[in-house]
Amino acid sequence: MNGETIVLRATGLHKRFGEHAVLKGIDLEVKEGEVVVIMGASGSGKTTLIRSLNFLEMPDSGHVDVCGISVQCEPAARGKLERCSRAARRQMALIRRNTGMVFQSFNLFPHMTALENVMEGPVSVKGVARAEARERAQALLDRVGLRERAGAYPRQLSGGQKQRVAIARSLAMDPRVIFFDEPTSALDPELRDEVLHVMKELAEAGMTMLVVTHEIRFAREVADRVLFMEGGLITHDSPAAQFFADSNNDLRTKRFLGKLAV
């Protein structure tokens, strides 16, 4: 069951790439334990939004608060991290330590085994002893069904296995919130189900998740809320059941969902 604690709040987020405005004033709140699915056509701003919430992209303006760690974006920085004040950069680093990110393309270190990939963050970022990190990494690989593949390198793993290692790697940092950027879009149907099963288990365990995805079944069955983005704005924000019911009456979302179902 979701709590009432707001763990993520964004206010007035704007982001431009050159002359192109990608985010046009995003306001968003996420409660602890919520699973929020973000949908929308390509170019609507979905990926930029979640990358801006953990400062993989630097917003041009706006305010972000994650787990009580607050950053007021500095317009004078013009969306460049290196131009931000030292205090702002410290806050951004703290937000990253409290959040996880699972990418579409896995982003595993190719020269490290699955176990070493999961260990790396706690050892290099948090200073955890290698023996402790190894034990924790092994337990996380077991959790995602990959205990027997701990010694395998990414080139020896299927796409679904690589994505499950990426999820374990994110969990190793004990995040309060995990962002998923189309985690199944590069996988065939059987491998997608492997990854979605792990994500569903995380949701059931109470993990706060923001998921950019086109997986309608996952959104229907797992999401608490669905956001629909269009033209850099959130045009719909409603409980999942209501979103799919209302989409029958909204021509643009109906067309979008119709294309996914083909």
Write a brief structural summary.
This protein has 262 residues and is of the alpha/beta class. It is built from nine helices and ten strands. Helix 3 runs parallel beside helix 5, helix 4 packs across helix 5 and helix 5 packs parallel to helix 6.
What would your notes on this structure say?
By secondary structure, the chain is an alpha/beta fold. It is globular. Strand 7 (177-181), helix 6 (189-204) and strand 8 (208-212) form a beta-alpha-beta unit. It is built from 9 helices and 10 strands. The strands form 2 sheets. Strands 6-7-8-3-9-10 form a 6-stranded mixed β-sheet, with helices on both faces. Helix 3 (114-124) packs parallel to helix 5 (159-171), helix 4 (130-143) packs across helix 5 (159-171) and helix 5 (159-171) packs parallel to helix 6.
Largest sheet: 6 strands, mixed
Mean pLDDT: 92
β-strand percent reads 25-35%
- By secondary-structure content and strand pairing, the structural class works out as alpha/beta
> What's the helix count?
9
- Unreliable stretches, pLDDT < 50, 5 or more residues? none
Find the count of extended strands (DSSP E, 2+ residues).
10
Helical residue percent band = 25-40%
List the secondary-structure elements in sequence, H or E: EEEHEEHEHHHEHEHEEHH
Whole-number radius of gyration? 18 Å
Principal-axes geometry comes out as globular
N-to-C terminal Cα separation, in Å?
Answer: 33 Å
Strand order of the largest sheet: 6-7-8-3-9-10
